[in-house]
Amino acid sequence: MAFSPVQGCPKCQALAEGMPMMTGAVKYTCRQCGNTWMETGTLK
């Protein structure tokens, strides 16, 4: 399963990788600054 959405980090603008959760949300973790955040709703 190669689900890997990528999004820009709101803090440092580096690429953050998303990891899908059971709830349908996606948890993003920035590799550069370590920032994490959740995205909910439909994936495009």
Describe this structure in words.
With 44 residues, this protein is mainly beta. It has one domain. It is 0% helix and 41% strand. It is built from no helices and four strands. It has a four-stranded antiparallel beta sheet, with no helix packed on it. A hairpin with a 6-residue loop joins β1 and β2. The protein is elongated, with a radius of gyration of 10 Å. The two termini are 18 Å apart. 7% of the residues are buried. The model has no long low-confidence stretch (mean pLDDT 85).
Question: Can you tag this structure with a few keywords?
Answer:
44 residues, 4 strands, 0% helix, four-stranded antiparallel sheet, single chain, mainly beta
